[in-house]
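Hi all, long-time lurker, first post. I run a small reading group and we've been trying to get comfortable going from sequence to structure in the token notation. Rather than ask abstract questions, I figured I'd post a concrete chain and ask someone more experienced to write out its structure so we can walk through it together at our next meeting. Sequence below, copied exactly:
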Amino acid sequence: MATLQMAARAHPHLGTYVTRAVLVGLTLATAAIHASLGGLMFMANAVGYTTLAVAMIVPGPIGQVRWLVRVALMGFTAMTIGGWLVFGARFPLAYVDKTIEVGLIAVLAFELWRTDGGPIGVARQARRLLARLAGLRIARTPR
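-- Answer (accepted) --
Happy to help. Here is the structure in token form:
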């Protein structure tokens, strides 16, 4: 534990990198499971997961709206679980995949809270994004 605390102090972004690596790993794991099942619906799901995993790590302008990628991935994962609950087949690999997806939502919630300030921070960022898209200028509110 002391070693992890020293490493975190030596490199302040280490926790972010570790969390992001776990997040991308879980996302790609569920994408691989869906791709292995074949069929149009599962392949589309695999492509969706892969695209969102890449969006989580690609540098550049998308970094300014990474919170939106996190929210989209959380919603996509929740909808996948909901679709399975309603229509899905109950076999062992499905339960493994749903466990991975629940873990993914938990890691996303942790990162959203830690990085973006939780639901209130996300709401502020969404408001700023919508204002920017509408061409309005909103004063920054203090945290």
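A couple of things your group might point at:
The chain has six helices and no strands.
Residues 70 and 121 are 13 Å apart (CA to CA).
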